[in-house]
Amino acid sequence: MTRHFLRDDDLSPSEQREVLDLAARMKQDRFSERPLEGPQSAAIFFDKTSTRTRFSFAAGVADLGGSPIIVNPGEAQLGAKESISDTAKVLSRMVSLIVWRTHAHAGLEEMAENATVPVINSLSDDFHPCQILADLQTIREQKGELRGLTATYLGDAANNMGHSYLLGFATAGMHIRVAGPAGFHPRADIIADAERIAAETGGSVTVLTDPAAAVAGADAVITDTWVSMGQEAEKAERIATFGAYRVTPELMAEAKGDAIFLHCLPAYREYEVAPEVIDGPQSVVWDEAENRLHAQKALMAWLLKESK
Predict the structure, then answer these.
(1) Contacts of 280 by beta carbon, 8 Å cutoff, 6+ apart
(2) What are the pLDDT digits (tens) for 44-80?
(3) According to DSSP H, which parts of the chain are helical?
(4) Contacts with 188 (C-beta within 8 Å, 6 or more apart), sequence order
(5) What is the separation of C-alpha 227 from the centre of its chain, rounded to a whole number of angstroms?
(6) Catalytic annotation present for 16
(7) Is 292 a catalytic residue?
(8) Which of 167, 181, 182, 273 sits in a 20 to 30 Å window from 33, CA-based?
(9) Are the C-beta atoms of 226 and 155 separated by less than 8 Å?
(10) pTM for this one?
(11) Rounded average pLDDT over 126-136
(12) What is the pLDDT of residue 79?
């Protein structure tokens, strides 16, 4: 059976650990795994601009012995003159992996339903599961065992990051708290899925509005930009809405003394995070950014192995 990675819970708890263990080994020996030797090719579609996703996947495919084929908006017929299902069937005969950074999650599902090679969600409007693998790798490097740790995500908890933190961290057996203003909480079905997973792994899921209560005693504090792509016209309104969720030194002081700070980047200092936090000693955002490379390489190698 071909394995895909569209949502964080496409990996079971044991599978997630396997991928993270492999990521740790590959970080120590960057060129140890060469499943794309040949080179085989990977199709990497970008419907949205990117820095970390583009470089980590392109470099990662090359590290694995393969050749990345980057496709920018307007450079292919995908979803326009040619259906997603037809594209999936054609590409499956030419490449070994399909990676897609897009808008509607339904497109990724259609791609996976028709592809005979692994399909990876490198970002959709609903989920950002590759980022969560990198975050878990980063937290594990700093804290050791993930199970039982408490992490807090602050800001727009209704976005793809809020959804993926619930699912991915619950899968790891962590206690995940997300906090945002009323009207900016995760979808009810995602909360229910995360709660079901947490009941199996020993983790927990908590949705709050009070940022201080959410951060209290946390091992990791996480935020994201308040103004994502396509929301630029709402910038002033969103800054006003999320102002209480800015991660300041005072808010970080509510977490554990050895708490770490994560941000998936790009970051906007003085909006969602104070410079003293993101550029301070508790910040691990640069390790987190690097780990996109290692976590995604491990994911690709694992999916290729399982699909064979």
Answers:
(1) 249, 261
(2) 999 998 999 999 999 999 999 999 999 998 898 887 8
(3) 13-28, 52-63, 84-91, 105-114, 129-143, 160-171, 188-201, 211-215, 235-242, 249-252, 275-278, 285-307
(4) none
(5) 17
(6) no
(7) yes
(8) 167
(9) yes
(10) 0.97
(11) 98
(12) 78
Helix axes 13-28, 188-201, angle to 10 degrees: 80
Query: Considering the chain, what percentage of its residues have pLDDT values greater than 70?
Result: 99
- Residues in the chain, overall count: 308
Verify whether residue 224 is a known catalytic residue: yes
Residue 41 three-state SS: strand
Given the DSSP bridges, would you call strands 150-154 and 220-223 parallel, antiparallel or unpaired?
parallel
The single residue of 9, 156, 264, 294 carrying the catalytic annotation is 264
Asked if residue 52 lies in contact with residue 289, where contact means CB atoms within 8 angstroms, the answer is yes
Q: Cβ of 291: how many Cβ atoms within 10 Å?
A: 27
Q: Is 269 a catalytic residue?
A: no
CA pair distance 164, 132, nearest whole angstrom: 7
Q: Read off the tokens for 71.
A: 């496709």
Single out the catalytic residue among 4, 101, 185, 246.
Answer: 101
Type of residue at 79: G
Q: Over the stretch 242-297, which tens digit does the pLDDT of each residue have?
A: 999 999 999 999 999 999 999 999 999 989 999 999 999 999 999 999 999 999 99
Res 81: pLDDT: 86
Catalytic residue check, 131: yes
Extract the tokens encoding 211.
């940022």
Q: Distances from the Cα of 155 to the Cαs of 6, 126, 161, 176, 298, in angstroms?
A: 23, 16, 10, 14, 29
Catalytic residue among 140, 177, 185, 292: 292
